[in-house]
Amino acid sequence: QVQLVESGGGSVQAGGSLRLSCVASTNTFGILIMKWYRQAQGKQRELVATIGRSGTADYADSVKGRFTASRDNGKKSVSLEMDSLKAEDTGVYYCNGQSAWSGANYWGQGTQVTVSS
Q1: Separation of alpha carbons 95 and 52, rounded Å
Q2: Edge-to-edge strands, sheet with 77-82
Q3: Taking the chain (117 residues) in consecutive chunks of 10 residues, what is each chunk's mean pLDDT?
Protein backbone atom coordinates (compact mmCIF):
# COMPACT_ATOMS: atom_id res chain seq x y z
CA GLN A 1 0.00 0.00 0.00
CA VAL A 2 1.31 3.42 -0.97
CA GLN A 3 0.57 6.41 1.21
CA LEU A 4 0.77 9.92 -0.19
CA VAL A 5 0.94 12.94 2.10
CA GLU A 6 0.51 16.46 0.76
CA SER A 7 1.61 19.66 2.40
CA GLY A 8 1.98 23.32 1.56
CA GLY A 9 -1.57 24.49 1.02
CA GLY A 10 -2.85 27.74 2.42
CA SER A 11 -4.35 31.10 1.65
CA VAL A 12 -2.83 33.68 -0.65
CA GLN A 13 -3.89 36.76 -2.54
CA ALA A 14 -4.30 36.71 -6.28
CA GLY A 15 -0.96 37.02 -8.00
CA GLY A 16 0.82 35.23 -5.19
CA SER A 17 2.58 31.90 -5.07
CA LEU A 18 2.36 28.62 -3.21
CA ARG A 19 4.33 25.43 -3.33
CA LEU A 20 2.73 22.07 -2.70
CA SER A 21 4.64 18.93 -1.86
CA CYS A 22 3.69 15.28 -1.79
CA VAL A 23 5.78 12.57 -0.20
CA ALA A 24 5.21 8.88 -0.88
CA SER A 25 5.78 6.01 1.51
CA THR A 26 6.96 3.35 -0.90
CA ASN A 27 10.17 1.79 -2.10
CA THR A 28 8.83 1.68 -5.64
CA PHE A 29 8.24 5.39 -6.17
CA GLY A 30 10.03 5.20 -9.50
CA ILE A 31 7.24 3.17 -11.06
CA LEU A 32 4.56 5.68 -10.13
CA ILE A 33 3.19 8.13 -12.63
CA MET A 34 2.40 11.10 -10.44
CA LYS A 35 -0.37 13.61 -10.95
CA TRP A 36 -1.82 16.65 -9.27
CA TYR A 37 -5.57 17.10 -9.30
CA ARG A 38 -7.76 19.80 -7.84
CA GLN A 39 -11.39 20.05 -6.94
CA ALA A 40 -13.24 23.29 -6.48
CA GLN A 41 -16.34 23.32 -4.33
CA GLY A 42 -19.28 22.01 -6.28
CA LYS A 43 -17.17 20.99 -9.25
CA GLN A 44 -15.62 17.79 -10.55
CA ARG A 45 -12.05 16.92 -9.79
CA GLU A 46 -9.79 18.02 -12.61
CA LEU A 47 -6.29 17.05 -13.66
CA VAL A 48 -3.78 19.85 -13.20
CA ALA A 49 -0.44 18.26 -14.00
CA THR A 50 1.10 14.90 -14.82
CA ILE A 51 4.70 14.10 -13.98
CA GLY A 52 6.01 11.05 -15.79
CA ARG A 53 8.49 8.61 -14.35
CA SER A 54 11.35 10.47 -16.02
CA GLY A 55 10.17 13.81 -14.69
CA THR A 56 8.56 15.13 -17.84
CA ALA A 57 5.52 17.20 -16.95
CA ASP A 58 2.32 18.02 -18.78
CA TYR A 59 -0.19 20.64 -17.69
CA ALA A 60 -3.80 21.59 -18.05
CA ASP A 61 -4.22 24.58 -20.33
CA SER A 62 -5.60 26.61 -17.43
CA VAL A 63 -2.29 26.44 -15.53
CA LYS A 64 0.31 26.34 -18.31
CA GLY A 65 2.99 28.96 -17.82
CA ARG A 66 2.00 29.49 -14.17
CA PHE A 67 2.46 26.09 -12.52
CA THR A 68 5.58 23.94 -12.49
CA ALA A 69 5.49 20.31 -11.44
CA SER A 70 8.57 18.28 -10.61
CA ARG A 71 9.60 15.06 -8.94
CA ASP A 72 12.56 13.85 -6.93
CA ASN A 73 12.75 10.08 -7.12
CA GLY A 74 15.46 9.98 -4.47
CA LYS A 75 13.21 11.77 -1.99
CA LYS A 76 10.09 9.96 -3.23
CA SER A 77 8.35 13.26 -3.68
CA VAL A 78 6.67 15.55 -6.13
CA SER A 79 6.04 19.24 -5.91
CA LEU A 80 3.80 21.77 -7.56
CA GLU A 81 5.05 25.33 -7.72
CA MET A 82 2.10 27.64 -8.33
CA ASP A 83 2.74 31.21 -9.42
CA SER A 84 0.48 34.04 -10.52
CA LEU A 85 -2.37 32.42 -8.68
CA LYS A 86 -5.92 33.31 -9.57
CA ALA A 87 -9.15 33.05 -7.62
CA GLU A 88 -10.20 30.22 -9.91
CA ASP A 89 -7.22 28.17 -8.70
CA THR A 90 -8.99 27.81 -5.35
CA GLY A 91 -9.76 24.25 -4.37
CA VAL A 92 -8.51 21.13 -2.69
CA TYR A 93 -5.38 19.83 -4.37
CA TYR A 94 -4.73 16.11 -4.43
CA CYS A 95 -1.60 14.15 -5.13
CA ASN A 96 -2.16 10.96 -7.11
CA GLY A 97 0.15 8.11 -7.96
CA GLN A 98 -0.59 5.42 -10.48
CA SER A 99 1.53 2.33 -10.78
CA ALA A 100 2.92 1.89 -14.29
CA TRP A 101 2.95 -1.86 -13.61
CA SER A 102 -0.42 -2.65 -12.04
CA GLY A 103 -2.45 0.48 -12.77
CA ALA A 104 -3.30 0.78 -9.09
CA ASN A 105 -4.21 4.31 -8.03
CA TYR A 106 -3.23 5.98 -4.80
CA TRP A 107 -4.48 9.29 -3.43
CA GLY A 108 -3.33 11.74 -0.84
CA GLN A 109 -5.71 13.33 1.63
CA GLY A 110 -5.73 16.68 -0.16
CA THR A 111 -4.61 20.14 0.82
CA GLN A 112 -6.67 23.30 0.59
CA VAL A 113 -5.55 26.21 -1.56
CA THR A 114 -7.51 29.43 -1.28
CA VAL A 115 -6.79 32.41 -3.52
CA SER A 116 -8.54 35.65 -2.70
CA SER A 117 -9.06 38.32 -5.30
Answers
A1: 13
A2: 3-7, 18-25, 77-82, 67-72
A3: 94 98 95 97 98 96 98 97 98 97 96 97
